[in-house]
Amino acid sequence: MKPIQMVDLKNQYEHIRDEMDQAMEQVIQQTAFINGPQVREFAGQLADYLQVEHVIPCANGTDALQIALMALELEPGDEVITPDFTFISTVEVVKLLGLKPVLVDVDPRYFTLSPDKVREAITPRTKAIVPVHLYGQCAEMEQLMELAEKHGLKIIEDTAQAIGADYYRQGKIQKAGTLGDIGCTSFFPSKNLGAFGDGGAVFTRDPDLADKIRTIANHGSHQKYYHTRVGVNSRLDTLQAAILKVKLAYLDQYSRARQQAAAFYDQALAGIEQLQLPQVQPHSSHIYHQYTLVLSDQVQRDDLREYLKDRQIPTMVYYPVPMHQQPAYQIEESPAKGPFEVSRRLSQKVLSLPMHTELDQEQLQYMTDTLKKYFQS
Ligand SMILES: *Cc1c(COP(=O)(O)O)cnc(C)c1O
């Protein structure tokens, strides 16, 4: 059996090695390492794939979120709603820009922002909602968009984990990240569309926002050495764009490989009552950036992880500490907004299994058999 890894980027590369090497070689020959033609080509292809007008590449997913927020031109102290259970980026950029992160608990089934709790958290100072499409499926966008419309809020979608997922809305299919005002993604190597280094992108349908985003990402400048606003330096390297151009063509195939692995896990683990398997919200497809279980109260997570590790099965905890408990943020629990009951429990009880495009039947069989054995003993 091939060794089991959380993510297997090496074997993924082996299948497309010729194309990838050729794309990289071409960039090296051209030496246009910054803003080379591949950057624009990739942005165009991603725009076609997402069916969105404007794609602005940038240096990483966290920058994408920061640039998107800067483009909204909010005032210091304005409130931005974002989930308590997620990766740090959304909270970090809100705070960095002098805005106020308002953390909201997540849905216990889907692990994404709870629309009911968002409703309770809205105040006259709320200006934006930043839902995170966690683990590969969309947040409940329909309800969030209704709330946003009613209260005049902007929506920035963090689709770093859900690039390529579909959302079904009013009889139409739209790609994750293209429903709200702005979408943000990351091309961190282990993401579903991953580069060989850092990368990110911001997308929108709105031409005015697109112009602001493009300017902000380029030192606040339309024309070299003339600066009309305060910006940042955030670019996607040409080499990364060339790599991503090749991999974008495989994204749907990669999503299907992940879905097949997830279906295997689902079927094999269905009988184990100590495990809550991933649930898919009815308006979204799931492209399984992670396959994440919730363990029941009796299960000792560390003990299970140790057992699996001894049998060469790696696991990860995404994420062990909810945002409100992070020492850098120390955000008060507000009784009115609920005590973050779900995010606290999830941080104690979630466990992600290996999930990538290269898992084979033998590995999946071995992993699920081993899990079954643990729960039988
Ligand atoms: C990976 C990730 C980010 C940040 O992306 P970087 O490219 O590492 O900055 C933001 N949000 C979520 C949900 C992520 O998974």
Short structural summary:
This protein is of the alpha/beta class and 377 residues long. The chain contains 13 helices and 14 strands.
Q: What would your notes on this structure say?
A:
The two termini are 25 Å apart. This protein has 13 helices and 14 strands. By secondary structure, the chain is α/β, with parallel strands linked by helices. 39% of the residues lie in helices and 15% in strands. It is globular. The protein has two domains: 234 residues, Aspartate Aminotransferase, domain 2, CATH 3.40.640.10; 125 residues, Alpha-Beta Complex (Aspartate Aminotransferase, domain 1), CATH 3.90.1150.10. The structure holds pyridoxal-5'-phosphate. Pyridoxal-5'-phosphate binds next to α4. Pyridoxal-5'-phosphate (PLP) binds next to α4.
In oligomeric terms, what are we looking at? single chain
Main sheet: strands, sense, barrel: 7 strands, mixed
Described by the principal axes of the CA atoms, the overall outline is: globular
What letter string, H or E per element, gives the SSE order? HHHEHEHEHEHEEEEEHEEHHEEHHEH
Helix coverage percent: 25-40%
- Our estimate of the beta-strand percent is 15-25%
Distance from first to last alpha carbon: 25 Å
- The stretches of 5 or more residues where confidence is low (pLDDT under 50) are none
Widest sheet: strand ordering: 1-9-8-5-4-2-3
Output the CATH topology of the largest domain. Answer: Aspartate Aminotransferase, domain 2
CATH architectural name of the largest domain: 3-Layer(aba) Sandwich
Number of strands: 14
The total domain count is 2
Question: Kindly state the mean pLDDT as a whole number?
Answer: 96
